[in-house]
# Entry
Amino acid sequence: MKEALIGLLVGIVLLAAAFLMLPIYSGASSFDIHLRDTFFVIDHASATVFVLLILGTFFSIGGVIGTRLKRKLFAVLLVLCLATGSFYVVSFYRAFQNEEETSFPMNGR
# Structure
């Protein structure tokens, strides 16, 4: 269990470092993340779920490493967090890659 808490601490440190390094602006109902020349807008509920999935993944990785796969709870939690997190990443990627919904009309086009 100690390794699971260490994994959770590593996840918190990585999220805090990302929060401090990235220009993230908080609005009334969303977070605006500025990467290079693009703003990504994510609502508070999706950001909360994404943070919880990241922390759950680090917690379960620490538990799997600490118990050397002897406890099935950490393995099931790891698979669940990775599957749900992958679904969210693919959903966000598809939403941001759809040019019709995310681009603005340019003058002269």
User: Anything to note?
Assistant: The mean pLDDT is 85.
